[in-house]
Amino acid sequence: MKTKWSGTLALLAMLALTWSVSAQTIAPVSAAPVAAAATAPAASLVNSGDTAWVLMSTALVLLMMIPGLAFFYGGLVRRKNVLSVLMQCFFIMCVISVQWVLFGYSLAFGPDVKGLIGNLDWVGLQSVGMEPFGGYAATIPHQVFMLFQMMFAVITPGLIIGAFAERMKFTSFVVFSLLWATLVYDPVCHWVWGLGGFLSRFDAAGHLRPGALDFAGGTVVHINAGIAALACALVLGRRKGYPDKMSPPHNLPFAVLGAALLWFGWFGFNAGSALAANGLAGSAFLATHLATAMAGLTWAIMDWIFNKRPTVLGIISGAVAGLVSITPASGFVSVLGVGRPGHRALGHVQGERSRWPVLRQFRPVPDPAQSRGHHDGVFLCHDLRAAEDR
């Protein structure tokens, strides 16, 4: 009997010990949500909606390059050169993406060096992780911001292709594109958008100060590419027989498809530059669409007045010019006086109306895909217009 009770007591002791160990094991697991809740504010710095919108905008800007820009330029050149233009656009996407990750991002957005360029602290994406970097975007991962800016770095040298389409050896094109992105785009990007850049609205510590107003790339992308395109055209010289013998676009449906993809992707370009899914993104989206529609309509009307009929090439050229024009001010203008203060987006039609004869005054400079015409001179009426808004 004594042995029986001893066995029972031993069994109860074992059960008690097992329960105690189980409770100690389970307790930390049950406390995990409490610990997670305690650290939730730090994790909530990344906003899922903002991150999703910027990732979508990144994909839209990529769509602008391939196939948007590739089709647009490819349709405007001669048939025998369309594949070379497509190859150049695709190659730039590849090589500049790699350059950006290796050292381009660090030069453009890295810690400031005397207001001129970023240093090499972020080479190979060192210190560019999944946490937000408050100096640039406080609610999205730093790598997502880097990726969004990569698309701008990719498409900017792509815009220059129109100035030397059909006229530059592929080897020379590769060397030029890589050097230009490193020696021109990256420093100019740092001047305007990098913390501490001498044209930037923010000093190295992130404090607001007077500086250039460039919401989505009027200076960094379009003026930069336009001046480079003009320089390329001048260095290469006139085409044989230009302007008396001009080669018409070989495939306007290609060009129309490219222009439509550019219009679609440009919403990511401009509205995505808000870096958040908020009212500013919506305002930039609306201003972008309306300015583009008015620019295309105005160009068609001008063609109708001066050439007796509107043309497909004219309306898509006007639409692309409107996209370029609204870019630097898209986050600063309102539509019909409703919304954000500043000039009305419809006012940009004045720029398109004045630009129409300007493009034709520079016809001696060969520009088969209208790269320089679309991107040069934007600052005359639109970057300055954005500055007036402030």
Q: How would you characterize the overall build of this protein?
A:
It is a single chain. The protein is mainly α and 390 residues long. Helix content is 65%, strand content 1%. It is built from 12 helices and 2 strands, in the order αααββααααααααα. β1 and β2 form a beta hairpin. A two-stranded antiparallel sheet has the order 1-2. It has one domain (47-389): Ammonium transporter AmtB like domains (Ammonium transporter fold, Orthogonal Bundle). The protein has helices at 2-43, 48-76, 82-109, 142-164, 170-193, 218-236, 252-270, 279-307, 312-326, 348-361, 371-375, 383-389, and strands at residues 112-113, 117-118.
In whole angstroms, how far apart are the ends?
97 Å
Proportion of residues in β-strands: under 5%
For the secondary structure, the number of strands is: 2
The CATH topology name reads: Ammonium transporter fold
What is the general shape? globular
| CATH 2nd-level architecture | Orthogonal Bundle
Order of helices and strands: HHHEEHHHHHHHHH
Helix content: 55-70%
- Look at the helices and sheets and give the structural class: mainly alpha
Helices and strands in order:
Elements: H1 2-43, H2 48-76, H3 82-109, E1 112-113, E2 117-118, H4 142-164, H5 170-193, H6 218-236, H7 252-270, H8 279-307, H9 312-326, H10 348-361, H11 371-375, H12 383-389
Antiparallel strand pairs: 1-2
Helix pairs in contact: 2-3, 2-4, 2-7, 3-4, 3-5, 4-5, 4-6, 5-6, 7-8, 7-9, 8-9, 8-10, 9-10
